[in-house]
Design brief:
Four Helix Bundle (Hemerythrin (Met), subunit A), mainly alpha, 12 helices
Amino acid sequence: MVEPDENYRIGRRLSAASRRRSLAIVALSYLLAGGGAAVTAAALPGVHPLIRTLAADVAATVLVFALSVVLANASLYDPYWSVAPPVVAVAWAVLGWPGATAGEHVRQVVVGVLVAVWAVRLTANWMGTWRGLGHEDWRYVQLRRQTRGRLPWPLVSLGGIQLMPTLVVFAGLLSLWPAMVAGRRPVGALDILAAAVTVTAIAVEAAADRQLHRFTADPGHRGQIADQGLWRYSRHPNYLGEIGFWWGLWLFGLAAAPDWWWTAVGPITIVVLFVAASIPLMDRRSKIRRPGYEQYARTVPALLPRPWRAAPPRATANRTRAEPGSPL
């Protein structure tokens, strides 16, 4: 259980709230953040919709941050990664719908449905395993300890935990603009490839999460590495699925408007986030906490499977998983 900051009485009281009450508080917080985003967008008439959306996105993030300070729990932000994208997708689909052809409507609907499926599954994964406001992501707890006495925690939380992922996800969403609004190319083979990549990525991430939850729920697996299913071929197949999802969206944008190829900056940024930050952090913690993990890491690739380097069956050390519902 996280120890709430003694300066925030509300956070201290609510850290013991039931899981149901905690979820209700999170839902209310996000409704308030959504209202703030809507007000921000409405206050910027005449501004390009991309800029208005970014401003609304940042405003919602700042409101979630402010509430996380009051509740003394930075993990209030955790669902934002999967909650914000479908809202942006719907807003842009509504904007682009009137001028689109029937074929373009098909692309808009397919992309919208895929984003919704991804978002609902990832958010449900978080909801199904989150323990309540007394629980904070171990990475945030570690970061709080590392920066204590050097930087104000609210500044660290706002910049490193909340604004940075919001900007990364917004970069990933840029490819939705040509797919939903600006693109005028008819649906073709590239759209089929994009759909295949996106569906496969969602399926891989869902299967990886399901396999890991099933493995760790079995008391007989205590002290063992999750070397079954997708986890035998990749140390982080859930991250691989997440990365594939964003590349699939980029392919939809490329199919709609090839001159928007530069929106590849979005999935590239997400790859860098996982490869340079999330994976090393998870692996480093696992090597410290789990004897035998270092050998497992030498055998099994971090992301892209290489069947000839699959983990030997029945490895002997338990692996550390990402926080529930958090792709990071």
